[in-house]
Specification:
Elements lengths: L2 H6 L7 H13 L5 H18 L12 H38 L6 H40 L8 H10 L1 H19 L8 H27 L3 H9 L1
Helix pairs in contact: 2-8, 3-4, 3-5, 3-8, 4-5, 5-6, 5-7, 5-8, 7-8, 8-9
């Protein structure tokens, strides 16, 4: 894994400013979901380009239809993987409703105790699933970038095997992304220009993540990816 390359490759592209600005504009409107799908699709393309060994892996903002579909598919995949977490949160809400409805009844203390126990169990399950999703998500992303097929995201046995075999690199990738995101996120507190800087930081973190995922995919699979990895060393 070439960490320095993932942090500096952006400016090696002659059109990086234009590509960066387009990404920032999409990030500005990502609250409307669809622009966020384009950004997700762009990260998929970036990951794929790194795995294919392209010298300048930043994609062009041209194939908008393809970017949208890639983003939509990866969104669907991650939503499915998040369903257990959503289900647990719904259970937590249900416990709260039951406990609130028990006020003034003779069984109030019993129900309140069961509610507290239920919330504790829910919190534990949520933490476990969140940690699992944290290490599995990069592999799911890489699987889709490699194949372009939504079904590949649900090859659970292969995904779990790849996660176990590459857990060290996955954890390092996740820590780098979180570290860069945290440090650059502090720019948002700067008065007046903080919002603009936070948008730029978000796009940059996405570019870094895409490159790291591409390198990780390179180590997992052979072909062009293996040639590119040899060139980094």
């Amino acid at each position: 894994m070439d960490i320095n390359k993932s942090l500096t490759f952006v400016t090696e592209d002659e059109q990086w400013v234009t590509k960066f600005i387009i990404g920032a504009v999409l990030a500005l409107f990502s609250i409307f979901i669809i622009p966020g799908l384009f950004l997700a699709g762009y990260t998929v393309r970036l990951t794929r380009n790194v795995m294919d060994g392209m010298e300048q892996p930043l994609p062009e903002w041209t194939d908008w239809g393809g970017l949208f579909m890639d983003g939509l598919y990866i969104f669907i995949a991650m939503f499915v993987y998040s369903l257990p977490f959503i289900l647990v949160m719904c259970c937590a809400f249900l416990f709260m409703v039951i406990a609130g409805g028990a006020q003034g009844s003779g069984a109030e203390e019993l129900i309140a105790g069961l509610g507290a126990l239920g919330m504790f169990v829910v919190a534990c399950l949520s933490l476990i699933w969140a940690l699992l999703l944290l290490v599995v998500a990069p592999v799911v992303f890489i699987q889709f970038a490699r194949t372009g097929e939504l079904s590949s995201c649900f090859q659970f046995s292969e995904i779990m095997a790849l996660t176990r075999e590459n857990i060290g690199d996955i954890l390092m990738t996740v820590l780098i992304i979180f570290g860069v995101s945290f440090v650059l996120g502090l720019l948002g507190i700067i008065p007046i220009i903080g919002f603009i800087l936070s948008l730029a930081a978000r796009i940059y973190v996405g570019f870094v993540a895409g490159h790291l995922y591409g390198q990780l995919g390179t180590k997992m699979f052979g072909g062009k990816e293996k040639d590119f990895e040899a060139g980094l060393s």
